[in-house]
């Protein structure tokens, strides 16, 4: 296990479209382990592979209620409702901004054994899934902020949102 460096806004790797994972090699398993460690160390609730410089469609999430969730090749298959609230990102340190997201999300993904899985989430988990999947297509939440991006004390928002 090892902590990986979290890339920050301005790093071109954050604006690239990630590739699908074809098989879970030992390197991919190690990446997922490292992503969890890196996310927990930074007090985040989600982390996408491009945030550690790897252009693969992998995200890790742990909102508390969700438990540790590694999602490979995730896709959102259903959404409903909406929620508006503050969001932050480990790649945009010290900032938060108001973003509207669906209040319910259903997603399909592969687990580390490449079994097809499905998850439903509301509120924070729905927000987190949307935020992390956007990273896989090169998008940051700052593109969607309503109003101004606020400065927050370091560490303040990460416990609420990645
Ligand atoms: Ni993020």
TrEMBL record:
GO terms for molecular function: metal ion binding; peptide deformylase activity. Fe cation binds at residues 89, 131, 135. One of its GO terms (biological process) is translation. Binds 1 Fe(2+) ion. Gene3D superfamilies: Peptide deformylase. It comes from the Bacteria. It catalyses: N-terminal N-formyl-L-methionyl-[peptide] + H2O = N-terminal L-methionyl-[peptide] + formate. The active site is at residue 132. Pfam families: Pep_deformylase. Its cofactor is Fe(2+). Its EC number is 3.5.1.88. Keywords: Hydrolase, Iron, Metal-binding, Protein biosynthesis. Belongs to the polypeptide deformylase family. Removes the formyl group from the N-terminal Met of newly synthesized proteins. Requires at least a dipeptide for an efficient rate of reaction. N-terminal L-methionine is a prerequisite for activity but the enzyme has broad specificity at other positions. NCBIfam families: pept_deformyl (TIGR00079), PRK00150.1-3 (NF001159). This is Peptide deformylase. It comes from Lachnobacterium bovis. The lineage of its organism: Bacteria, Bacillati, Bacillota, Clostridia, Lachnospirales. The gene is def.
